[in-house]
Amino acid sequence: MLKNLINRLSGAVPEGIALLFTRIALAGIFWRSARTKVEEGSFLTIKDTTFFQFSDAPFNQVPVLNGELGAYVTTYMEHFLPILLVFGLATRFGALGILGMTMVIQIFVFPEMAVWWQTHMIWTAMALILITRGGGIFSLDRLIGHKLG
What we know:
The protein is 74% helix and 0% strand. By secondary structure, the chain is mainly α. The protein has one domain (18-148). It is elongated. The two termini are 35 Å apart. The mean pLDDT is 92.
């Protein structure tokens, strides 16, 4: 009886639900951050304060992606990658991108260990789950893969 319960709880549907929630949770974090970087009422018009933020410490410590380029790349990726995750389209790619952003934030922007333990470790765990498991059965990845055989 216990083995039957364990088999049901570890099946494709419960895993798919868990992966769906993980995708939405991780996407939501980065989507909300992205929306703080653009003008109110616009989709991708970047605020002047965002450009200033990326040219000022600690963001100017990020190699290559500081200043104007950093503002554009970060804002666009924080919009694009969460969309991929929510739909479960190229889930592993989206999660890898978010993992990369998390590592850049941890290493160059907020290198304090307290930030790692309180926030970035959770983001990293969610991204790694999606990288290793994929989007699950409730994803476009699964639908496309199923159609293509």
